[in-house]
Design brief:
- There is one protein chain.
- It contains eleven helices and 14 strands.
- It has 329 residues and is an alpha/beta fold.
- The protein folds into two domains: 60 residues, Alpha-Beta Complex (Aspartate Aminotransferase, domain 1), CATH 3.90.1150; 244 residues, Type I PLP-dependent aspartate aminotransferase-like (Major domain) (Aspartate Aminotransferase, domain 2, 3-Layer(aba) Sandwich).
- The longest helix has 16 residues.
- Its EC number is 2.6.1.-.
């Protein structure tokens, strides 16, 4: 959105509103836009003056069907009246229906889902699963990555948000993201991402204590500058992980559920990750978020994260069940 200046005649200039906002809200991501958003519909948000503003951010990058989609609104209202959430030890039809539907569209082998509350939580669960499955603890990601701002997810995030919080999780490593516009490695005047990847993993091997558990990556780095991984890179990255007994976690918060023209961005390269996490686009502006795993990982005799399975969020599950037909249309 473009920053605009409010005037005293504008309802956006409500002095009491802004005074209370400054006094009671903690803001760490920059300044707020000088407008008061009253409602949203379709591709637009509307400020206090009734002005329609095209929402290029699609809410928090998640309004895949636009704001206030009538079918989604109806499902939210239905579940708010009937059954909105449950204790995680109980099951309901929308949750199982959603898991079944997701299994039908996920890359081959990703058969089981863990429904959670946020994208960061999905990545936390994925990292924990990788550590439990491998018995190791070192996690590698891209130097321009964004995976969340909680614990392990924050430790794997390098594009921003690292200053002032003390040490990251032990065993956190980063490699350069392949960037054809400003290549670090060239051959015959062309970007040589293979040489860059080989060199990066040579450095990782030298730093590792022999406990490499996982590599977590975005197929298109979002906050890092919308960097699209070159064709073939994901397959090469998966091979590097397999050689070392690491799991490949793909974070498709921004790219999943059709945003690249395919249901999942990893399908362009024909790569099936060991763990796939989905959030923003999956929720079409509502919960849940998801960690989807290879069947062999979930059937491995290891103990999964306690307290992570939130299988009772009926409203979000119902929304997703309704959103898939709408997306296909």
């Amino acid at each position: 959105m473009t920053t605009t200046t409010t005037t005293t005649s504008s309802r956006n200039a409500d002095p009491d509103f802004w005074q209370r906002a400054r006094r009671h809200l903690i803001r760490y991501g920059g300044t707020f836009e000088p407008m008061i958003i009253e409602r949203a519909q379709g591709s637009f948000v509307y400020d206090a003056d009734g002005r329609a503003i095209l929402d290029f951010t699609s809410g928090q990058m998640s309004a895949l069907l636009g704001h206030g989609h009538p079918e989604i609104a109806a499902v939210v209202a239905e579940h708010a009246r009937s059954l909105d959430h449950l204790f995680s030890g109980m099951l309901s039809r929308p949750v199982v229906d959603l898991a079944t539907r997701l299994a039908g569209v996920a890359p081959a082998g990703l058969e089981r889902a863990m429904l959670l509350s946020t994208g960061a939580e999905a990545n936390e669960a994925a990292i924990k699963m990788a550590k439990l499955y491998t018995g190791k603890y070192e996690v590698v990601s891209f130097a321009q990555s964004w995976h969340g701002m909680t614990g392990g997810a924050a430790s794997a995030t390098y594009s921003a948000g690292r200053k002032g919080y003390g040490p990251a999780a032990v065993g956190s490593f980063a490699i350069p993201a392949p960037y054809p516009y400003r290549p670090r490695f060239e051959r015959d005047g062309r970007f040589d991402w293979q040489a860059e990847l080989d060199y990066a993993f040579d450095l990782i091997d030298r730093q590792s204590s022999g406990n490499l558990a996982a590599f977590i990556a975005e197929p298109i780095l979002s906050s890092g500058g919308l960097i699209d991984l070159p064709l073939g890179y994901l397959a090469a990255l998966k091979a590097k992980c397999s050689e070392r007994g690491m799991l490949l976690i793909l974070d498709e918060a921004q790219t999943g559920v059709g945003r690249t023209g395919l249901m999942f961005a990893c399908q362009r390269d024909g790569v099936v990750p060991d763990i796939l996490t989905l959030s923003k686009t999956l929720g079409v502006d509502d919960r849940p978020e998801l960690t989807r795993c290879d069947h062999s990982i979930l059937t491995h005799p290891c103990r999964l994260p306690e307290g992570a399975l939130v299988c009772g969020y009926l409203c979000g599950s119902g929304v997703l069940g309704r959103s898939f037909p709408a997306l296909r249309r």
